[in-house]
Amino acid sequence: MRGARIMGTGRELPSRVVTNDDLTKLMDTSDEWIVQRTGIRERRYADPEVANCHLGTAAARKAIEKAGLSVGDIDLVIFATLSPDMYFPGVGVLVQEMLGLRNVGALDVRDQCSGFVYALSVAEAYVKGGFHDHVLVIGSEIHSRGLNFSTPGRDVTVIFGDGSGAAVVGPAEPGKGILSTHLHSEGKYAKELCAAEPGFLQNPWLTHEMIDEGRIYPKMNGKYVFAHAVRRFPEVIREALAKNGYATSDVGMVIPHQANERITQAVREALELPTEKVFSNIERYGNTTAASIPIALDECVEQGRVKDGDLVCLAAFGAGFTWASALIRW
Ligand code: UT7
Question: Could you tell me the domains of the chain?
Fold first, then answer.
């Protein structure tokens, strides 16, 4: 069977920077609290006329160019997001149209912070199996339109930001590129981090009360999510290494989903890896959910921190609960 590799990456961040001090004008919070608890100093918010599909398309164009391909080479679009432009259809079809792709398939993945790694695993399978040659994988979010900017929403709102990252997956020699992917879920914890209303569990699915009582915003049991994340990240990274016969000392770079700097620090400590081997950019972008890993990967490649031949591990944990990893020989 042939291999599958990431041929090119791209990212698109809105230009509007929102600092912690900006948020203190809207809710009872402080720069000190946010930095101490999360490591975040600023995040990006999209301007009103910018939609998720715009960010995703811009990131995708860069990834296709860096892969040395043209849009006509793309066989399939996979779009991972929890903040779709429309309830339906998915964002993948909007990107297909905006890029001017021929009538290729467009698949949306709904696995939140693990969305990009889940989507990458689908691309890996299609390319390794010979069903598609060039799969465009996008992780992209516009959180800023779905957050509660008053004090009751502060625990969630200060964390999240907008952004988009993309990768093109194409054929590789066997044993090169994506070595394996590992997906997990534990749906019994779905309600610990969710936006359940509006939704079709309710009848009617949307009411005035949901809006008036602020029930339409994401709810998070932060401590609970934190406790699971610090266990699952090291576990799923070790799983990927063990599957391929490697030790943590073989890893050139771990790129974790950017959930919270304290979680990233716990991953470093659990795996006994030096600071420079576990990438972090949460200080500048906050948590961009499905976009955080492809944005970080693109920055790593650009900064020369991921080079040909390096062993790279992507790892994610988030709502669902879902968690996942991908081990890549770059
Ligand atoms: O991407 C994956 C999904 N999400 C995550 O991975 C997030 C995981 N969880 C976390 O990162 C942390 O739990 C948080 C950053 C969300 C919260 O940190 P914490 O250390 O668990 O704080 P806490 O929830 O225990 O809150 C401590 C205090 C509370 O006040 P009292 O009850 O002690 O008086 C909160 O009301 O901090 C208060 N608080 C805030 N204060 C200022 C909560 N949010 C804020 C805020 N600004 N933004």
Answer: 3-175 (3.40.47.10), 178-329 (3.40.47.10)
